Amino acid sequence: MSLQRKKITVVGGGFTGATAAFMVAQQELGDVVLIDLARVENPIKGKSLDMEQAAPIQMFNAKIKGTSDYADTANSDVVLITAGVARKPGMSRDDLVQINQGVMKSVAKQIATYSPNAMVIVLTNPVDAMTYTVLKETGFPKNHVIGQSGVLDTARFRTFIAKELNVSVKDVSGFVLGGHGDTMVPLIRYSSVGGIPVSKLLSEEKIESIVNRTRTGGAEIVNLLGDGSAYYAPAAAMVEMTAAILNDEKRILPAIAYLEGEYGYNEICLGVPTLLGKDGIEKIFELDLEPVEKEALDQSAAAVKDVLNILT
Ligand SMILES: NC(=O)C1=CN([C@@H]2O[C@H](COP(=O)(O)OP(=O)(O)OC[C@H]3O[C@@H](n4cnc5c(N)ncnc54)[C@H](O)[C@@H]3O)[C@@H](O)[C@H]2O)C=CC1
Ligand SMILES: O=C([O-])CC(=O)C(=O)O
């Protein structure tokens, strides 16, 4: 009997990449390769060895290899891209576009060479435009290149609602669509707590303040940290998507997908409800939106298009 272990490569061994690598190993989703080029080789090897030595304590089976050599990433099943630069207080995610586009181009080329059949999950910001860049540069099928924004944005939204109502986060569900920026669209009509619509439990003012806090949730953490951006919840979001793909879970999760007419948009990668399974994005759900929701999504799509227009 041959049971092939899954291989997950994490590109970028900084805050989000190292955290995601550790979570992937803890959840025994497969063996992990953590690759970082900008740092000298020894620290990435040190981090990976340190993680591996947690295995006998936490009782997980996973190899974790730190490297600067793409040959070690060959034939990965899933590749998580976290390489690049994070913003600092006062910056927008879009300020990172030029520098991170260059990083995406070089990373995409390596992934296409070494892991041509991989599913790719992009985290690097501005993530809608970076997902588009990776899709174009790898030439991979559109269902194989997926951006992470909605799981994180929805998790923030769910956290704030649960805190406000003093209930378990487990019972709060919701959907945040659109670009990963201040124009993102939390959909109140599709949000509920234990099946009860959020609008029956919270006042309009409270909901509006939660929506605003969700939209600026990344900046809130950037300002608190002072140097760098969020990484625990972003890593958890990527790992949830990785598990959905590797275990063929058929999860319905918001993710950044390449759109060909869905919601009326073309030539754009944008956050929409998706079905994630072994083939990556297996389906995009087109929800019926009310005019005010569609207008908000149009604004968000326009903001993403503005960034796409400055890609070289
Ligand atoms: N989409 C989302 O929801 C989120 C996106 N992000 C974004 O993720 C990215 C990473 O964030 P952090 O991990 O906090 O940053 P970080 O600075 O801690 O780590 C980035 C790592 O990438 C490495 N790197 C740079 N160029 C590379 C290359 N060509 N190949 C391999 N590695 C390379 C750097 O050496 C560094 O170790 C940022 O762009 C950030 O804005 C972060 C959180 C959430
Ligand atoms: O805010 C940032 O720069 C990082 C990010 O995308 C997030 O935490 O949502």
TrEMBL record:
It catalyses: (S)-lactate + NAD(+) = pyruvate + NADH + H(+); (S)-malate + NAD(+) = oxaloacetate + NADH + H(+). Catalyzes the reversible oxidation of malate to oxaloacetate. Residues 152-308 form the Lactate/malate dehydrogenase C-terminal domain. It comes from Kurthia zopfii. This is Malate dehydrogenase. Pfam families: Ldh_1_C, Ldh_1_N. NAD(+) binds at G12, G13, G14, F15, T16, G17, D36, N100, L123, T124, N125. Substrate binds at R87, R93, N125, R156. PANTHER family: L-2-HYDROXYCARBOXYLATE DEHYDROGENASE (NAD(P)(+)), L-LACTATE DEHYDROGENASE. It comes from the Bacteria. CDD domains: LDH-like_MDH (cd01339). One of its GO terms (biological process) is tricarboxylic acid cycle. The active site is at H180. Residues 7-147 form the Lactate/malate dehydrogenase N-terminal domain. Its EC number is 1.1.1.37. Keywords: NAD, Oxidoreductase, Tricarboxylic acid cycle. One of its GO terms (molecular function) is L-lactate dehydrogenase (NAD+) activity. Belongs to the LDH/MDH superfamily. LDH family. HAMAP family: Malate_dehydrog_3 (MF_00487).
